[in-house]
Amino acid sequence: PGTLDSLLALSDDLVKSNIFIEGVSHKIRRLIEGLERARGVEPGTLTVDGVPVDSYLTRFVWDEGKYPVNAPLKETVATIQSQVAKIEDDMK
């Protein structure tokens, strides 16, 4: 169980994580929009797992299989950051 001090410390980390993850999300959106323009594809035609890209990026659904709600918050944040960093590296 987390203490108030650990939650306050994590709060600062969450702000940084949020900024990083939002930045990567915007990069992905710009990349996809650029691909659509370059290929002359109608905006919103490209999909991720059968879902239009815009919906995929903006409609969040928590995946309890990947991120159990009973896992320590710090561990969950670290896992998400790691996965987003990998996505960012893959885009380069």
Automatic annotation (TrEMBL):
Q: Name one GO cellular component term.
A: vacuolar proton-transporting V-type ATPase, V1 domain
Tell me the Gene3D superfamilies matching this sequence. subunit c (vma5p) of the yeast v-atpase, domain 2
Query: Is Transport set as a keyword in this record?
Result: yes
What are the GO MF terms of this UniProt record?
proton-transporting ATPase activity, rotational mechanism
What the entry lists under InterPro entries is as follows:
ATPase_V1-cplx_csu (IPR004907), Vac_ATP_synth_c_sf (IPR036132)
Task: For this UniProt record, give its keywords in alphabetical order, as a comma-separated list.
Answer: Hydrogen ion transport, Ion transport, Transport
Give the coiled coil ranges. Answer: none
Top-rank lineage group of the source organism: Eukaryota
Stated family:
Belongs to the V-ATPase C subunit family.
PANTHER family named among the record's database cross-references:
V-TYPE PROTON ATPASE SUBUNIT C
Job of this protein:
Subunit of the V1 complex of vacuolar(H+)-ATPase (V-ATPase), a multisubunit enzyme composed of a peripheral complex (V1) that hydrolyzes ATP and a membrane integral complex (V0) that translocates protons. V-ATPase is responsible for acidifying and maintaining the pH of intracellular compartments and in some cell types, is targeted to the plasma membrane, where it is responsible for acidifying the extracellular environment. Subunit C is necessary for the assembly of the catalytic sector of the enzyme and is likely to have a specific function in its catalytic activity.
Q: What is this protein called?
A: V-type proton ATPase subunit C
